[in-house]
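Lecture 7 notes: from sequence to structure.

We start with a single chain of 181 residues. Read the sequence below before looking at the structure.
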Amino acid sequence: MNDNQPIPRDVALGGVTGLLGLIFVVGALTITPDPSAFKVLGPRVAPLTIGVAAVLVSIALVVRGLRPGSRPEAEAAPPDEIGTNAATSDEADDVDEASAGSSWRTHRRLIVTFGLLTVYILVFIPLGYVVSTFAFLLVLTTYTEPRKVLRNSLFAAAFAVVVYLVFTRGLQVQLPPGLLG
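Now the structure, written as tokens:
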């Protein structure tokens, strides 16, 4: 990859995912278990597992993005009678503008997702797990699929409630109750 080429999408996404995974791992390691409670699975297990999984996925994304041939190259136009490319400079400009627009959309999605995740982290304790997770997932999925609001709402509600029950009932891990507590 030379200096003029943009960073491949998988490499950028892998970098962001790796950073978030490392934040989860560091945060998990700062959690102090309650010494009065004996539990096989303590409060560190979930965030540590999520963090390690995110780091592993990020490594896979970066490797995939850096692998030769992983990025689709622009197809060359067939040569005309003289042996030059048949594509005009106007067509080449259109392709450049389209790829620049696509690159900006990708960056905008990353920025919006990171911003939503930041807000989610900030409201997690005050609003509680169920409310903040539902809101985060609803906004994120509606941002990516705006025409499927009902499906997004059902997914966000089901995910938030099921994960809450698995952690609080099954694993005996307390999650912040927030507004519902």
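The CA atoms of residues 21 and 50 lie 7 Å apart. Keep this in mind for problem set 3.
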